[in-house]
Write a structure and sequence with these properties.
Radius of gyration: 18 Å
CATH architecture: 2-Layer Sandwich
Pfam families: DDE_Tnp_1
Strand content: 15-25%
Shape: globular
Protein name: IS5 family transposase
CATH topology: Nucleotidyltransferase, domain 5
Organism: Acetobacter aceti
Number of strands: 5
Distance between the termini: 64 Å
Structural class: alpha+beta
CATH class: Alpha Beta
InterPro entries: Transposase_11
Keywords: Plasmid
Number of domains: 1
Helix content: 25-40%
Order of helices and strands: HEEEHEHEHHHH
Length: 154
């Protein structure tokens, strides 16, 4: 017997990814949202908490065609900025402090990003979203989408 024995079943046996990440702080989930100029959600997705924000940006931008993309420093990567400029989208992303070649950012336009943060604040007012009681990714995503619809209607 030279194989390893594990009491944890394989991921394929447990099912698909449920967007629950594990870190030193415990279990966590990230909600990614793209909002329009009025702060209304256009695209929403969830990922495990330890995943990088930039990993979902390309897939979320596939179905929409904005004039500008306002995001925080977590989205400052040359590959994303190049794709945005190829599509004719103005990237409004402040450069990371450790970037060797600092880019210019339109901070007057960047101030409008608070609409996205205000959307997340409204979303977290729903207890089921703030605490994530749902185990399944599909159920939690449906709850986030339902809360987003309520926010849109108010």
């Amino acid at each position: 017997m030279s194989g390893r024995i594990s009491i944890v079943p394989e991921l394929s046996k447990r099912g698909t990814d449920q967007a629950i990440g594990r870190s030193r702080g415990g279990l966590s989930t990230k909600i990614h949202a793209i909002c329009d100029a009025l702060g209304n959600p256009v695209e929403i997705d969830i990922t495990p908490g330890q995943d990088a924000d930039i990993n979902r940006a390309d897939q979320m931008l596939e179905n929409i065609d904005p004039d500008a993309f306002l995001a925080d420093r977590a989205y400052d990567a040359d590959r994303l900025i190049d794709r945005l400029t190829e599509r004719g989208i103005t990237p409004v992303i402040p450069p990371k402090r450790n970037r060797t070649m600092q880019r210019e950012t339109d901070f007057a336009l960047y101030r409008e990003r608070n609409l996205v943060e205000r959307f997340f604040n409204k979303l977290k007012q729903f207890r089921a979203i703030a605490t994530r009681y749902d185990k399944l990714k599909s159920t939690f995503l449906a709850a986030v989408q339902f809360a987003s619809i309520i926010i849109l209607l108010n």
